[in-house]
Amino acid sequence: MNDRLKKIRKELDLTQEEFASKIDLTRSGLASIEYGNVTLTERNIKKICRQFNVNENWLRTGDGKMFNTKEEDKELLDFVINILAEKDEFIRNTFLTLARLDEKEWDVIKKIMNGLKNK
What is the pLDDT of residues 48-79, one digit of tens each? Predict the structure, then answer.
């Protein structure tokens, strides 16, 4: 993951200092991650993906595209808007529950979703 992190930074044409400041790290902390001396935390993975529109799957595994495309983001946003517009209470509560999950709870959801996807 450290090599992919460096690729993102280079692609965005940011110095270590600039990149690190955008995700609340020090330059030396980022350098330690890029050199493989320190592991990227879940919290920092989430920050990087949100801040720079990075495809989380690519960051973790190298599969797919480096960045989420605007078309994908728009498709997802349109889906959520349409679903919520139906005013189905179960769906609304499901999305609200998802919005309130912490990192550990998201890990459980990921395992469930991956299991469903593979069936």
Answer: 998 999 999 999 999 989 998 777 778 888 88
Start-end of H helices in 1-119: 2-11, 16-22, 27-34, 42-52, 56-61, 70-85, 89-99, 103-117
Q: Where are the domains of the chain?
A: 2-61, 70-117
Whole-Å CA distances, 62 to 8, 30, 54, 65, 72: 12, 19, 11, 8, 18
Q: Spell out the long-range contacts of 36-42 with Cβ–Cβ below 8 A and sequence spacing 24 or more.
A: 36/2, 39/1, 40/1, 40/2, 40/5, 42/103
Q: Does domain 2-61 have CATH number 1.10.260.40?
A: yes
119: pLDDT strictly greater than 70: no
11-29: pLDDT as tens digits = 999 999 999 999 999 999 9
Q: What is the pTM of this model?
A: 0.60
